[in-house]
UniProtKB/TrEMBL annotation:
Its EC number is 2.7.13.3. It comes from Massilia forsythiae. It is found in: Cell inner membrane. Member of a two-component regulatory system. This is Sensor protein. GO terms for cellular component: plasma membrane.
Amino acid sequence: MRLCLLFAAIAAGVFGVVDAYLYRTLEVQMAQRDDADLLNKGVLVRQLLRTLPAGGRMPQEQLEAVLAPMIGQEGVMLHVSLPDGQVLASTVEDEMRLPAHAPVPLARAPALDDIVEVDGGPAPAHVLAMLADYGGRGARTQVRVLLLRARSDRLAILEHYRADLLATVGAGTLLAAVLGFWAVRSGMRPLRGMAAKANDIHTHHLATRLDPAAMPAELREMATAFNDMLDRLEEGVQRLSGFAADLAHDLRTPVNALMMQTQVALGQERTVEDYQLLLESNQEEYERLARMIENTLFLARAENAQLALAREHLDLGRELAQIGDYFELLAEDRGVQMTLGPMPEHPLFADPVLLRRAVNNLMSNAIRYTPPGGQVRLDARTEGPWITIAVANRGDGVPSFDLERVFDRYYQADPARASTSSVGLGLPIVRVIMHLHGGSAHAEVRPETGTVFSLRFPRHAGAA
């Protein structure tokens, strides 16, 4: 309806401007035609008066009868007078309103510029004043001739024409409103179809898609964007369902362990040492639950843009050396050799806390899954606009079909995940940290180095 009213307003404006132009054009053309006709009559009257023979006296009635065919009956009035003011012939009803304009001299032919507009009576009139040679008084003499054309006849025509134009504006506006309503309603039919399909979509029915080929060209881009949005929503719902299932599974394991141990301990009288062992075991499960909750909250805050980065320029070599020193004892306990590779001289613009957390997660995984006698290597290098940190280990490796899934929440390549202390959130946290920095995290298997996890940071601050 708003578009219909807008079309009607536009149509009314356009028709109004066009009709005003046509009305003004007709008014000007009629005025020019009337002035040309008045000028021609003046020339004919001057010629007629000049051709009258000298001698004899022509009464006023006879003179008016001679001039009447010249001026016609089209609203033209004639007034002929001598220099002393004596009237020879006149068809003017009120001679007191005759204008006192300077007449066109006898030596010059009248022109359109000599016609002037005067206000007289109910409507303005155009007047031509001129001198003429007249011999009907017994001798040749100059007389003053006034020709007046009232505008009443032209105004009547224009009034009728104006009424027709106003009717045209009203009819055209109404027609534009009706046709605009029909056109908009027909054009928006695909939108109503989109709305109907959108109403059919819910969390258990996300497979509905629009057919862009069946849409008008103006709506194909919207239909494609709508389908892409549904794809993202469907993927998000599936991931959320999987996340909920995995979270329930991982929470159930420590909770069941706590319940079972507590029930067994309460089944009969225990010694103080037994209760101490029970509390130590429960403490391990509580720590596992605390890590799981802390990591889940971290991921939720990061994905909802509630985690602010405190970036600064870091000496990457020194940061990685400190991390290597921290994990060196753990590597020795497990019989794993840890080495540091070359480091770039270019500083790294990153959040130091999140950088250490990401590399620590990779290092702890690498040492955990590397068998005794294996090797873990930590190095960094510059690759164009990126700085890449790589952690490689020669353990059992990650199957190729698991390389992309290892960054999913609660996913573990080890089938016996319930028996380990890992909850499957370390690598997802690494990927989220890299996304916050504008970088990426990748995993690959190389024959010469084994499993390699790479972190790519933007080299320059503006690249992030």
